[in-house]
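Supplementary notes for students who missed Thursday's class. We covered one full example, reproduced here. Read the sequence, then the structure, then the short commentary at the end.
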Amino acid sequence: MSNISRRSFVAASSASLLSVFLGACSNDTGSDAGSDSGGDAAAASGKHIYVLTASPDHGWTGQVGVFAQEKVDEINEAGTYTAELQTAGAAADQIAQVEDILAGNLDDVAGIVIQPLDDTLQSAIQSIVDAGVPYVAFDRIIEAVQDSAVANVKGDNEGIGAGSAAYFVENGMQPGDAVYIYQGDTSSVTTLRDDGFTEYLLGNLEFDGSTVPEDQKWTQEQIDSAITKSGAMNWSRSDTKAAFESLLGDETNAKIKWWYAEDDELAMGILEALNGGGISDSAKEAFYETKPFITGCGGLQEYYDVIGGESYQDIVANLGGAMSVTYSPIMIQTAIQDMVDHLDGKEVTQDHVIACENVTAENVDEYVGFE
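Structure (token representation):
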């Protein structure tokens, strides 16, 4: 698996940075889509590219906006196309943005790069296709319309689950051990992160080129009985903190050793709960007796500092380990570049999955996260 170097996360707008990132992180195992994918390129005679992303409501999303604006500025400076970034805090607002674009002069529109806020964007995306405008979907992929995209650019969400499961197995997790999963939301992202975790344990999915050892495979019965899911935490640190405090109100839950948080913010919620006064000392003592393991994903520098032993040292000393799986917000630049390449007549990968890696105490110094 490719190594995502420190410079992959540094906010720089040069074309050389993007080239390094694409070369290191792209996974070209998906189907190739040429210049006729997602609508005929000839239908997009304009020169203006719209980039539609979520409003910066938490760290990862906020950094998506930073990287998107950098790439937009790069396109505008190059001069072949013009580009602009629009953000939305709700699906209805994003739908309205699409409607406004399509109601304008389509002769000016080259293409649309969109991070759908939820599945209610399906009809809006279909209207983009019906208008003959090519589009690239980023991060949250809507299955019903994905085949009409120039490219579907996303991190390896199944890989995130598989990476967490592999880390647990490497550190002694046995088939049937109790596992608690803190889920992000109700979208396909969470479903894939759930599925990746269980499919790795069942022996159906690889991580870093390997499947679970034969003697460590789980049965479906063990999956069903031993894994508990939180329900949607809405990618919220505070929601996870409150949920974890409530969970450990029953000290039998303190015996769970394996904690899979589907985002670094959620992992930080667990740590903040352990650092606060909402959990009894006896429950904390019982929790630490197991030498528990906590995983996250996303690349939050605050959590990288925890993994590296630079913060929450007293808590980390009582853990078996803490780990994060990469899911860099700089992927938005890959999505925008895929649109530019398509407009330039180049072939792009339609199912464009960015490979992920496990970040542990042993290699965290090789990575720089986002604030």
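Commentary. The radius of gyration is 21 Å. The domain at 157-325 is CATH 3.40.50.2300 (Rossmann fold). If anything here is unclear, bring it to office hours.
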